[in-house]
Amino acid sequence: MSxxxxxxxxxxxxxxxxxxxxxxxxxxxxILNRLFVAVSRxxxxxxxxxxxxxxMSYTQTHFAxxxxxxxxxxxxxxxxxxEEHGKLLDQLDQLCKKHLLEEKPIYFEMxxxxxxxxxxHIQGVDTRYSxxxxxxxxxxxxxxxxxxAEFALMSNSKKWWEVWKAA
Length: 167
Hints:
It comes from Sideroxydans lithotrophicus (strain ES-1). Pfam families: Hemerythrin. This is Hemerythrin-like metal-binding protein. Residues 18-129 form the Hemerythrin-like domain. By secondary structure, the chain is mainly alpha-helical. The protein has a single domain (17-166), classed as Up-down Bundle (Four Helix Bundle (Hemerythrin (Met), subunit A)). It contains six helices and no strands.
């Protein structure tokens, strides 16, 4: 993917200072950029199903691990954060239904929605929990080793990666 084909460029401004979470956020940005490339090449129809599947599976897996981290660290604002996650999943589900059931084009709506949501969510609520964990002295080193291994198992069991690579 060349720089001309990047819709959302990752920068250090999006870091939550937890490598595992940053890596997962980068992958969500990559999925968004893959959709952009497909649409710009007029190949959206060929890859949209795989991209939607990858996006939903990856996001669910990422949220599960992020929420687990917050529970283990006893983050006090976990409930509102989980509500934000639920809202995003609902919105993604609605976009998927719009495309799959109603056969309506969703490319530009999805690109705009996801870019805005990722920026606002990462720089808003994700940086708040990251800062709170750091202030509370929660060490993420052990959690990161465990989460990386668990994420690999979760990803393999969902087979989303195979679909994503083929898209």
